[in-house]
Write a structure and sequence with these properties.
582 residues; alpha+beta; Herpes Virus-1; Archaeosine Trna-guanine Transglycosylase, Chain: A, domain 4; 4 domains; two-stranded antiparallel sheet; 18 helices; zinc-finger
């Protein structure tokens, strides 16, 4: 289970306060991340990299406290002036402290300080649009920097010092909201467009990012930051164009079948309970900002994963086959231009890819899990929130591996599948997983703060037929023993919560292979069934007996040795009055 953070790694209250203040003070929801073209640093610890450039501070953003007159006693006007002067000084102090925290890489603290300054500026009658726009721009940079820091934080660092906070996409959305307010307040300020462009870029909304950069260049064609940001967007778009030609025009007859979010032909359409239809990927990305319909803002309680509207998808693909195929190729090209495990993939392109038997998948670092073993997890780290969200958009699978004594991942881990996923109001996920198969690790890499593993499936070695006693006989004995144990557990399960929990966590029992197989196929199917039976039984016994041999069982490639261990444990439990959980 995702371990609770230590006190020193406590939740960044500043970011949550800033996000709440953004909704309360600015009247908006989350926003996108600030542009990387502004030289925003991407590290959590200030000693890991040089501090980023301090956000721009305008001269008119603070009042001159030295010029404030001392009010005379009983003078109401002077008292009001003194109060206004104190508020202006407080605003300037929060802003300067925010700039200082930003320059030292403490982005969550900077966001909190900018939020306090914004609250004062909104209540101050003397604050003009330039003050508000500057503060919105600064807070957008803080949210963007924090999102990039989470993405770029090495997985090894997070494994030794866990973080608690919003996932990078949510922070990016907060940054986008602030950048949009900065643009609205000062439409001639190029930095606001740069902030907005990078926020959209980090949200992988490349076409909108291009429009934001071009709008800024329309104000100042010589702005270097906007030119660099536009070049980054063009590079990504060109990579997608090299795989498939972008759709240049859409038949006017398809207007009614356009997605209102991407303004393109609906692809894998999903329909919300309020009756609006969007592309599956577009709808999933829109839920990063909240659980409201993107069109009518009705609160939705259906989660991110909506089923495809089969009738509408079939109608579109049959009525406009050429356009739908072009749309599919466009989505596949867009997904292919991203690293494995990134957002935006649809059900047609899974998050795990097998090439020459090698499977690429994200990895959750924790204890070992056996095949057929069920487990509940509380996901609170930003990097793993992002990983789970992406897994749910794909094939719902990821790896679970444990760390060895040398601070490296163990060579064998388990691929698990998410069976239940419940997003919580604070951004955490409560998920239930079941072990599916063993994998042998070949190499690892980092992506957005979590590990990506390249691995191959691992199976037991086939055993010769002349070994005695026969493996099938051993399997029958273990099967009978575990049936007896389950009967005992169910007898006391009504009064013992621990026993009920063990029974609820049991996965489905493996079934033998097809009976019509013969020869080598029959022997292979029998051993495959016995391998699965040994893991299913072991997953129960490690909870009942508390035996600390989970990883030894996982990496063993001998079905016989695993069945013998199960038989031994069943014998011990049968000879005792009560197992450890009774």
């Amino acid at each position: 289970m995702d371990a609770s953070p230590r006190a020193s790694d406590g939740p960044p209250d500043a970011v949550r306060d800033a996000a709440a203040a953004q909704g309360a003070a600015a009247g908006g929801h989350g926003a996108d991340v600030a542009p990387a073209a502004e030289g925003v640093a991407a590290r959590v610890d200030s000693e890991q990299a040089a501090g980023p450039t301090v956000p721009e501070t305008r001269d008119d953003a603070a009042a001159d406290s030295s010029a404030a007159p001392t009010p005379a006693a009983g003078d109401g006007h002077l008292g009001a002036a003194a109060q206004s002067s104190r508020e202006a000084c407080e605003l300037a102090k929060h802003r300067e402290h925010g700039n200082d925290a930003f320059s030292r890489g403490r982005f969550d603290e900077a966001a909190n300080l900018y939020s306090r300054a914004l609250q004062l500026a909104i209540m101050s009658p003397e604050a003009d649009r330039s003050v508000l726009s500057t503060l919105y721009s600064n807070r957008s940079a803080a949210f963007a920097s924090l999102a990039q820091a989470y993405r770029n934080r090495p997985a090894e660092t997070s494994e030794s010092s866990a973080l608690y906070g919003m996932d990078p996409m949510h922070l990016a959305q907060l940054a986008l909201n602030d950048a949009a307010k900065a643009v609205d307040g000062m439409p001639q300020w190029t930095k606001a467009y740069s902030r907005k462009g990078l926020a959209l870029f980090l949200l992988e909304r490349y076409s909108e990012a291009e429009e934001a950069y071009l709008a800024g260049l329309g104000v100042d064609p010589t702005c270097k930051a906007l030119q660099e940001g536009l070049a980054q967007v063009a590079k990504v778009l060109d990579a997608a164009k090299s795989t498939v030609k972008r759709q240049r025009s859409v038949n006017r007859n398809l207007d009614e079948l356009e997605c209102t979010l991407c303004l393109r032909l609906l692809y894998e359409p999903v329909t919300t309970p309020c009756g609006h239809t969007f592309c599956r990927g577009c709808y999933a990305r829109s839920t990063d900002a909240g659980n409201k319909c993107p069109l009518c803002r009705t609160v939705l309680h259906c989660g991110r994963a909506l089923p495809i509207t089969v009738t509408l998808a079939s109608l579109i693909s049959r009525a406009f086959p050429a356009e739908y195929q072009e749309r599919k190729e466009e989505e596949d090209a867009s997904a292919a231009s991203r690293p494995v495990g990134t957002a935006g993939r649809t059900s047609s392109s899974q998050d795990t890819a097998a090439i020459n038997g090698v499977v690429t998948m994200p990895v959750f670092v924790m204890n070992s899990v056996l095949p057929f073993e069920c487990m509940a997890l509380n996901i609170f780290e930003p990097r793993y929130r992002l990983m789970i969200r992406r897994a749910m958009e794909g094939n719902r699978r990821f790896g679970m591996a444990q760390m060895g004594r040398n601070r490296q991942l163990e060579s064998v881990f388990t691929e698990v599948e998410i069976t239940e996923c419940s997003p919580l109001p604070d951004g955490r996920y409560h998920i239930e997983v079941i072990g599916r198969r063993r994998m042998r690790l070949r190499s690892t890499s980092d992506l957005d703060g979590y590990r990506i593993a390249q691995a191959e499936p691992l199976s037991d070695e086939l055993e010769a037929d002349d070994v005695t006693p026969p493996l099938s006989l051993l399997g029958v004995e273990v099967g009978a023993g575990v049936d007896t144990l389950i009967t005992r557990l169910r007898t006391v399960g009504g009064t013992n919560p621990g026993v009920r929990e063990v029974l609820q966590c049991m996965g489905p029992r493996p079934v033998p292979g097809a009976a019509e197989a013969d020869g080598a196929d029959a022997r292979e199917r029998t051993q495959t069934y016995l391998e699965r039976l040994s893991f299913w039984t072991a997953a129960l016994l490690v909870q009942v007996s508390r035996a600390a041999v989970r990883f030894e069982l996982l990496q063993s490639t001998s079905t016989r040795s695993r069945l013998l261990w199960c038989k031994e444990q069943l014998g011990r439990l049968d000879n005792t009055e009560r197992c450890c959980i009774m």
